[in-house]
């Protein structure tokens, strides 16, 4: 294979040999160290192959031996170059394509992040951008080892990172750190008191003495779990102060009020939009359209699309900003619509405020006033109301500890 | 002294001593000739190779010179007859 390639690069000729003494010619070729191959006898003649540079040398020998040498076929790179020597544009195009390819491959086209399962990709991308690793960065000016070190310092959730740039794609391999759980190390004596008024439903006490019972009502700041623990044996007949720990679940009642006015200003998006697009090449942007929104009020949406081929995102794309006109209109709301809107508001409030807790009961009542509607909501929420409260101990009691 | 010289001579290979060609056959399909000095005849049915002492004649069908160098020739084909011409 390699020999064939060398022959192709140097160029070779398939020749036919005829005459009186071809054997003598063959011996002379051997004597002069001329390389030839595939010399086969045919009807009163021979065919063979010879390198182009040797073919020029043997003219003297043909005269000497009175044989006729005829070129049958020319193959190889020198002949191709000669054939296309008149078409200079083709060569220029090929060379310029090669140069552009080399130039573009010296930039980072895309950044691929692998292994980030729980970590935010945006956080990693921001950290990488602060280390100058972003699309359009000059590849040879980047020190990947220092980027890895900086990334580890900037994002402590990363355990191991490897950054490799190959063919314009920066691959960032990440292993996330397993965070160790928080261990409570507080040892100071404290009580657990009620954070809110409520009715106790369940008690889970890990440390301390429980002072309340199920179904008992408690008020705010009432003692729930005491830090004073009595010894059980006679030998341990002492009072000890501990760091109380536990959960006291209670039903807590809440009242909320949601208001909506009868005359409501509605904001409606127009179906017409104006788009302003930029062409992105690496980190450079070139504006394409210059449309502007007509109204004073508008809202914008941004999006970016990059070309991709064979799963590789190319550094060429469109960055667009869409501006939608906004129309304001005054709407008079009736009771039915007000109910729907207020209930939506209440549901949203529940999700954000009582999302972590169990809502046992809720009750809505709508009241219509002169210019507004009011929704009164009553909630019964089951939640942990225990809150630690540090106990101050005098010097005498310290000796007890 | 003469005895020692005789022993030394007998230890040397014969082809080296008398300029004899070394011919190696692979069945009747291939013959490697070392010590050739040139080609005297080259056709499909007969190849004659000159060595220093003899002329080697190969007769057969579809004979061809696979490889040739100033001292070595490889003849391939269906060899039917081999002859030393002294």
Q: Can you tell me about this structure?
A:
The complex is a heterodimer of chains A (401) and B (86). Helix content of chain A is 25%, strand content 46%. Chain A is elongated, with a radius of gyration of 43 Å. Chain A has 10 helices and 22 strands. Among the domains of chain A are: 2-82, Alpha-Beta Plaits, CATH 3.30.70; 88-183, Ubiquitin-like (UB roll) (Roll); 264-331, no CATH class. The longest helix of chain A is centred in the C-terminal third of the chain and has 19 residues, at 335-353. Chain A starts with a helix and ends with a helix. Chain A is of the alpha+beta class and 401 residues long. Chain B has one domain: Immunoglobulin-like, CATH 2.60.40.2000. In chain B, a hairpin with a 3-residue loop joins strand 4 and strand 5. The A-B interface holds A 22-23, 26-27, 30-31, 33, 39-41, 46 and B 38-44, 63-65, 68-70.
Give the helix tally of chain B.
2
Q: Can you count the helices of chain A? A: 10
* Average residue-wise pLDDT of chain B: 86
What is the CATH top level name of chain B?
Mainly Beta
Give the C-alpha Rg of chain B.
Answer: 15 Å
**CATH class value of the domain at 88-183 in chain A:** Alpha Beta
Q: Compute the CA-based radius of gyration of chain A.
A: 43 Å
CATH architecture of the domain at 88-183 in chain A: Roll
Structural class of chain B comes to: alpha+beta
**Number of distinct beta strands of chain A:** 22
Shape of chain B: elongated
Measure the end-to-end span of chain A: 90 Å
Largest interface: A-B, 11 and 13 residues
Would you tell me which CATH topology of chain B applies?
Immunoglobulin-like
Shape of chain A: elongated
Oligomer: heterodimer
Mean pLDDT over all positions of chain A: 85
Name the CATH superfamily classification of the domain at 88-183 in chain A.
membrane protein fhac
Number of domains of chain B: 1
Order of helices and strands of chain B: HHEEEEEE
**Biggest β-sheet strands, sense, barrel of chain B:** 6 strands, antiparallel
């Amino acid at each position: 294979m390699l020999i064939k390639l060398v022959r192709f690069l140097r160029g070779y000729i398939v020749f036919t040999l005829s005459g009186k003494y071809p054997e003598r010619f063959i011996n002379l070729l051997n004597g002069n160290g001329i390389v030839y191959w595939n010399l086969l006898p045919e009807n009163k003649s021979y065919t063979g192959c010879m390198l182009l540079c040797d073919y020029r040398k043997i003219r003297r020998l043909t005269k000497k031996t009175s044989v006729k040498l005829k070129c049958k076929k020319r193959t190889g790179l020198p002949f191709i170059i000669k054939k296309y020597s008149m078409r200079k544009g083709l060569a220029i195009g090929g060379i310029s394509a090669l140069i552009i390819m080399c130039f573009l491959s010296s930039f980072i086209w895309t950044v691929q992040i692998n292994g980030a399962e729980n970590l935010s990709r945006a956080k990693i991308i921001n950290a990488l951008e602060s280390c100058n690793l972003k699309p359009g960065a000059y590849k040879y000016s980047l020190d990947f080892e220092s980027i890895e070190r900086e990334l580890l310092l900037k994002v402590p959730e990363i355990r191991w990172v490897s950054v490799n740039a190959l063919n314009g794609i920066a691959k960032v391999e990440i292993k996330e750190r397993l965070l160790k759980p928080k261990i409570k190390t507080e040892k100071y004596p404290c009580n657990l008191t009620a954070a809110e008024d409520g009715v106790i439903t369940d008690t889970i006490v890990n440390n301390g003495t429980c002072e309340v019972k199920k179904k008992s009502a408690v008020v705010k700041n009432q003692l729930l779990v005491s830090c004073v623990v009595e010894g059980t044996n006679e030998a341990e007949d002492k009072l000890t102060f501990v760091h109380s720990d536990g959960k006291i679940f209670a039903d807590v009642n809440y009242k909320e009020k949601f208001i909506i006015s009868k005359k409501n200003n509605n904001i409606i998006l127009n179906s017409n939009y104006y788009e302003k697009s930029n062409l992105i090449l690496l980190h450079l942007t070139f504006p394409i359209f210059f449309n502007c929104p007509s109204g004073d009020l508008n809202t914008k949406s941004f999006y970016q699309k990059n070309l991709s081929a064979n799963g590789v995102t190319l550094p060429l794309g469109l960055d667009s900003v869409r501006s939608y006109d906004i129309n304001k209109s005054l709407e008079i709301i009736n009771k039915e619509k007000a109910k729907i809107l207020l209930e939506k508001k209440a549901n949203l409030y529940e999700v954000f405020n009582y999302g972590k807790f169990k809502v046992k009961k809720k009750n809505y009542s709508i009241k219509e006033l002169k210019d507004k509607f009011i929704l009164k909501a009553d909630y019964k929420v089951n939640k942990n109301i225990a809150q630690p409260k540090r106990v101050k101990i005098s010097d005498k009691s310290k000796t007890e500890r | 002294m003469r005895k020692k010289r005789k022993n030394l001579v007998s230890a040397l290979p014969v082809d080296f001593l008398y300029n004899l060609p070394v011919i190696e056959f692979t069945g009747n399909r291939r013959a490697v000739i070392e010590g050739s000095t040139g080609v005297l005849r080259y056709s499909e049915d007969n190849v004659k190779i000159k060595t220093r002492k003899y002329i080697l004649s190969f007769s057969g069908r579809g004979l061809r010179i696979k490889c040739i160098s100033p001292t070595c020739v490889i003849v391939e084909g269906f060899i039917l007859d081999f002859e030393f011409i002294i």
